[in-house]
């Protein structure tokens, strides 16, 4: 589907990924309606977008407010990014991911069905694979056995979207992300390390067991390009693409990069973690996505994991 110049709606528009996507869509001459309840997103991330005539921001809660259909009038597709992004919260709060991820997705799908919006792009996650035995992990890996409530909620949302696509003659593009990093990020290991070191430059508490989990990290610029490219090349009723980098890195390396960029040499204090060294319940110890499906269609990430991490640290430090 070619989306240049089309009218689109973005949920979670003020979030880390959502705001970057909005900027990209506006650069493609799209008319963009962005909705967000601002629970985790920040309106300041849309500062540039708000100067554009083709952008409209609506503060809207998918779980509380009514009338979503009116914002979908004439919309060609929906980019559904609204979700609770905190993987760790599931251990202490079992309802958040159910409500903000699964039920919110249902609300979006129902409004699309009512208004005849034909296409949805959905941001899912590598955590749907759980502890995959095949690494790098391809999109057709199975069975999918998530180990976090966040992963479970995203997999349930994928299933709901697929069912709606087949039942109501829609098309869907599902993206399973590695750890996305970059400017405007408001949570995650890099953000946490910088915050901790600003509070105490001499010591850094690190969740888990040295050298920590080993995962793929992908820069936001590569991620946004992958999302747009996937929409353009997808022909199936439901298309699924992994988006990540071509390598992995461990938590200790991330700590080293953050410390170096901040000009510090802190003492690392490992907590020992849970369940054999995980940072928290539901934390996947090894994650590397097979990205050959989208690469075969012309997309390739420009940054490695370490390059993406270093660029993110510099951005968050204002370098």
What does this structure look like?
The chain is of the alpha/beta class and 319 residues long. The protein folds into two domains: 7-180 and 217-243, NAD(P)-binding Rossmann-like Domain (Rossmann fold, 3-Layer(aba) Sandwich); 185-216 and 247-284 and 302-316, Alpha-Beta Complex (UDP-galactose 4-epimerase, domain 1). The chain has eight helices and 14 strands. It has helices at residues 16-27, 96-115, 149-167, 189-199, 220-233, 251-261, 292-295, 305-316, and strands spanning 7-11, 31-36, 55-59, 77-80, 119-125, 171-177, 179-181, 203-206, 214-215, 217-219, 238-243, 249-250, 267-270, 286-287. The chain has a seven-stranded parallel β-sheet, sandwiched between helices. The chain has a three-stranded mixed β-sheet with strand order 12-9-14. Strand 4, helix 2 (96-115) and strand 5 (119-125) form a beta-alpha-beta unit. Helix 1 (16-27) packs across helix 5 (220-233), helix 2 (96-115) runs parallel beside helix 3 (149-167) and helix 6 runs parallel beside helix 8. The chain is globular, with a radius of gyration of 19 Å.
Q: Percent helix among the residues?
A: 25-40%
Quick one: how many beta strands? Answer: 14
- At the fourth level of CATH, the homologous superfamily of the largest domain is NAD(P)-binding Rossmann-like Domain
CA-based gyration radius: 19 Å
Overall morphology: globular
The CATH architecture of the largest domain would be 3-Layer(aba) Sandwich
Assembly state (oligomeric): single chain
Strand content: 15-25%
Low-confidence runs: none
**Helix count?**
8
Largest β-sheet summary:
7 strands, parallel
The CATH topology of the largest domain corresponds to: Rossmann fold
Mean pLDDT: 96
User: What class do helices, strands and sheet pairing give?
Assistant: alpha/beta
What is the name of the CATH class of the largest domain?
Alpha Beta
Number of domain units:
2
SSE order, one letter for each helix or strand: EHEEEHEHEEHEEEHEEHEEHH
Distance N terminus to C terminus?
38 Å
How are the strands of the biggest sheet laid out side by side? 3-2-1-4-5-6-11
